[in-house]
Design a protein that fits this description.
- The structure is a single chain.
- The radius of gyration is 20 Å and the shape is globular.
- The longest helix is centred in the first third of the chain and has 26 residues.
- A 5-stranded parallel sheet has the order 1-2-3-7-6, sandwiched between helices. Strands 4-5 form a two-stranded antiparallel sheet.
- By secondary structure, the protein is an alpha/beta fold.
- α1 packs across α12 and α2 runs parallel beside α9.
- The structure holds thiamine diphosphate.
Length: 339
């Protein structure tokens, strides 16, 4: 498993990033965690619908997004807000989406990030299609798709991986193995020793990376992106991490896992190891931490205010987004609400 920074902040190999780059990654992870905590609180106040927290997975998501160019494609899941944000999707739309507002699922012009997939695994084939289209059009954009360990049991995973390998599409498959698919543990999900090793059966490279190490994730995803951009085809990456919180705000993990295990993973916190590294390199002070935290809080509060100030959606905005021509059931629903 590729690791560059140990849990106690020691660099275990030559770090191919500058101190300034590490400070930026740290700042991004603070912003992401602030968003995550805020959304949990908003849901408890009844201001958001179900929310799927990503605490503990910030390094996997921020590191992966940092490896991309701003015009690359991202197809991710309900748990990938940090990845989607770092790739260009505004926090305010992510919040709006979680209130149930369909406009939250409409990325701004020029942002090549698909709305989050709630259907487990369904978006992997979209990423392959996007990557294939880019290759056919002669661009050198790549598509990264992120999914959980549970998604690897879906038929879509097999189709996406096989098609990508056969057609040599510039796709990066990023599996965030966070230990569970709701209550189902990773060891029961597949008899493979690792998810990364499944790559071999498809004829593509597979890598296992410490998903709580932002530098290692950036390095490994960066190499996969470079290969894809260079016409060398797809890669499967397994980022080994842990979901510190519940599956969603409707879940009680105490019913299926030992919370001591979660506590153990807190010691491998992806933010703390970078903080320790920066502190040792004179790149961190409590004052700077305070500034980062206040700035992050300000930005997230602003995003929530934007989302909550959106005027009530019209019937058109709710119902006419999906199809070019409204289907019969949609026409019926429009009729029911008086249009
Ligand atoms: C096709 C499909 N089947 C079942 C579900 C219900 N479901 C939602 S999340 C989830 C578990 C997914 O686990 P994993 O892929 O490991 O991702 P994680 O939630 O751990 O990030 C399931 C079964 C769904 N949304 N879509």
């Amino acid at each position: 498993m590729r690791t560059l920074i140990s849990p106690d902040g020691i660099v275990t190999d030559r770090l191919p990033f500058t101190l300034e780059e590490m400070r930026r990654l740290y700042s991004d992870m603070i912003e992401a965690r602030t968003y995550d905590h805020k959304c949990m609180a908003l849901q408890r106040q009844g201001r958001l619908a179900t929310y799927a927290p990503f605490e503990g997975q910030e390094a996997a998501q921020i590191g992966a997004a940092a490896a991309l160019r701003s015009d690359d494609w991202v197809a991710a899941t309900y748990r990938d807000a940090a990845l989607m944000w770092r790739a260009g999707y505004p926090w305010s739309l992510l919040v709006a989406g979680r209130t149930g507002d369909e406009r939250g699922g409409q990325p701004p012009e020029g942002v090549n990030v698909l709305p989050p997939s709630i259907t487990v695994g369904g978006h992997m084939i979209h990423a392959v299609g996007l990557a294939w289209a880019e290759a056919l059009n002669g661009s050198n954009r790549v598509a990264l798709t992120s999914f959980g360990d549970g998604a690897t049991s879906e038929g879509d995973f097999h189709e996406a991986m096989n098609f990508a390998a056969v057609f040599n599409t510039p796709t990066v498959f990023l599996c965030q193995n966070n230990g569970f698919a709701i209550s189902y543990p990773r060891d029961e999900q597949t008899r493979s020793e690792s998810i990364a090793m499944k790559a071999e059966g498809y004829g593509m490279p597979g890598f296992l990376v410490d998903g709580n190490d932002v530098a290692a994730v950036l390095e490994v995803v960066g190499s996969a992106v470079a290969r894809a951009r260079n016409g060398e085809g797809p890669t499967l990456i397994e980022a080994l991490t842990y979901r510190l919180g519940p599956h969603t705000t409707s879940d009680d993990p105490g019913r299926y896992r030992d919370e001591d295990e979660a506590e153990g993973w807190r010691e491998r916190d992806p933010l703390e190891r970078v903080r320790l590294l920066l502190e040792r390199a004179d790149g961190w002070t409590p004052e700077w931490q305070g500034e980062l935290q206040s700035r992050a809080t300000e930005l997230i509060e602003e995003a929530v205010a934007i989302a909550e100030a959106l005027p009530q959606p019209t019937a058109d905005e709710m119902l006419l987004r999906m199809y070019q021509q409204p289907t019969a059931p949609i026409r019926e629903q429009l009729g029911e609400i008086g249009r």
